[in-house]
Design brief:
The complex is a heterotrimer of chains A (290), B (186) and C (140). Chain A is 45% helix and 10% strand. Chain A is an alpha/beta fold and 290 residues long. In chain A, strand 5 (147-151), helix 6 (171-178) and strand 6 (182-183) form a beta-alpha-beta unit. Chain B folds into two domains: 7-99, Fumarate Reductase Iron-sulfur Protein, Chain B, domain 2; 109-180, no CATH class. Chain B has helices at 7-14, 31-35, 46-54, 58-63, 75-79, 86-99, 109-123, 128-132, 141-156, 170-180. The chains are: A alpha/beta (290), B mainly alpha (186), C alpha/beta (140).
Amino acid sequence: MKKYAYFPGCSLEKMALSYHNSTLETTRKLGVELKELEDWNCCGATAYFHVDELLAYTLCARNLAIAERENLDLVAPCSGCYKNMYFARAHLKSDLDLAEHINYALEEDNLKFTGSSAVRHLIEVFVNDVGLEEIKTKVSHPLNGLRVAPYYGCQILRPRKDHEDIEQPRFFEDLLSAIGAVPIEFPLKLRCCGGALIITSRPSALSMVRNLLQSAVDSGAAVIATACPLCQVNLECYQKQVNQEFGIELSIPVMYFTQLVGLAFGIPPKSLGIGSELVSTRPILSYAER
Amino acid sequence: MVTKPSFSEEIANLLHATHANPVKTCIQCGMCSGSCPVARFMDYTPRRVIAMINAGLKDRVLAGNTFWYCASCYYCTVRCPRGIDIAELMYALKRYSIWKNQYKDGLVGPVFSETFVKTIVKSGRSYEPVLATSYLFTFGVQEFLQEAQTATSLMLKGRIPVFPPRIKRLENFRRMIKRIIPLGGD
Amino acid sequence: MSQQKKLLIIDDDPDFVQGLKSILEAAKYNVEAAYNPKDGFQALQTKHYDLLLLDIMMGRGAEGIMLARKLNKDPKLREIPVLIITGIREQIAFLFPGQAVHPHLLPVDELVEKPVEPALLLEKVSTLLQAAETRKAQTK
C-alpha cells in the first residue's frame, strides 16, 4: 500500500473541506494511505516571500523535516503549497549554506532537514504513482460523456522542475478520460486564476476569472475541474461578482478533480463534499448515474 | 567596490542568490509582458519595469504597482529567452519596497502580506477572517456589500473557519523564527 | 601600531554605505565595501580586514545573520571583530512592533541600530579594534 505524509494546507480545513474529504475518499479506494503530517504549519503561501525569503524557507523546511522524520514523501493537494515546498526543498538541497542556516533554526523544534522526502502534488499521485490503468479498474460509474474543462492553473507546472511539458501538458485530460468524462480543449487551461490578487487587486483578478470562465463556457464545458483550492474559490465563489462587474451572466460549476473521480468510483456525493458549492453541481451528478 | 552601485546593481545585489539572474541581459523582447495575465492592469508592464531598472529609474519603479500586482504565475520566468527569473525579481522588489517602506499609496498587497505573516508568526497557520481586515477598509460601499454577500454565502455553506487554528509546538516555532529574525527580547 | 586599520562594510544600501564610509575615512580608516553577502564573503577570504561592519537585511532576507554564523565557523575569519549595524526594526517594523533586536541571539561582537550617531560608531569601532589587538597580543 502506498503511503504518504499528507499536507492538507490551510485552505482544506474549511474553505476547501470538500477537496480534503474527496481526497481521502478516493485515495482510500485506490489503496493509497495518506497520513496527515503531524503538527504541520502554513506553507507561507506567497505572502512570506514578500517579507523574508529565509523565513519562508524555514516554514517549508519545518514541514519537510517532519515528513522526513516519518520517512514518507510529502503530498500536497494545493498547488501553492506544492510549489513552495517543492522549491524550498530544491533550494536547500543546492545551497548548503542556506540549508545549514535553516537547520540552525529547525533545531529549536528538534528537527533537521536533509531533503530525503520528495514533494508530490496530489494529482501526480493519481496519474503517475497509482496510474490510469489502476484508476480505470475502480470506475463503476463512468461519467458518461460529461464535458469537463481541465483547469491546471499556474503553480502546478510553473516554475519548471524538470523536462516536463509545461506548455502542452495532457495528464489532466488523460485522467478525465480515464473516468469516462470528455476533456474539452480549453485554451486558457494554464493561465493564472489570480490567486491572492482576488484580495490585493480585485479588478485584475475578476477580469482574469472572467476570461477563464468565458473560455470554458465557449469551449462547451459543463463543469470546470481544478486541482487547487485557490483556483476553485476564485473561479466559483466570485462568479456573482464577475457578472456584476462586467454585466454578464456566466454560470458554471467548478469541482475538484477528486470529486469527479469520486463520483466515477460510485462514492456518495455527500461524502465528497458535494453540496457546499455556491454554484450548484446538481446537473453534474446525473452523469454518474448508471 | 569604488563607485556607488547604480539602481540596476542594487537589484542585482538583491538577487545575488538567484544564480545568474541576468536582469541586465534583457533584450526587451516583450515575451514577459505578452504572457503576463495582469499586465494590462499594471502601471508599467514587466518588460518596461526591467528597462526602467536597467536605466536606473528607482523611484519610478517603486512608485508603480507592477510588482505588487504580480500573481506569481511564472509564465514570464519560464518563457524568458534570456533566462531571467522575472517572477523572482517581482518578489525581490516586493521585499525591497517593504523594507524601505516605499510603495504606491492605496495598495492592498503590502498590508495584506504583513497581516498574513503576522498571523502565521503568532499561530503557525493562516486565518482568513483576520486577513479580511487588511482589505475591507479599502473597498467602496458597493464592493464591501458584494464581499459581505459572498462571505455570508460561504458561511452558510460552512466554508469559513470560525476559530483561528494553531499549531501545537508554538513555543518552539516562535523560537525557531527568532533564530532567523533576531527580534524580540526576553 | 600606526598602521592604518582596514575595515570592510557589507551592506546593500549604497547611500548608507557612502555615509558610513565618509565618517570612517575621516577618522583615518581604510574602508572598502561589498554590497551583497556573496561578494562580502569573497572579499573576506581574499584580503585581510581588521573589522567587519555588517548589515542584517540583504538579498533574500536576514542574510547578515547567516553570514555572521558562517564566519564564526571559519577559524581564521572568526578572529575578525564584527559590528552589526542594522535597520531591521524599521525594515520589518510591523512584524514584532516595539521589540528590540536581540544581541545575544547573534554570534557577533556588537550591535548598533540605524540611524547611527557618528560619535557612537567611531567609539564602537575603536573599542572593538583595541580589544582585538589586546587578544592578539595575549596569544603571542
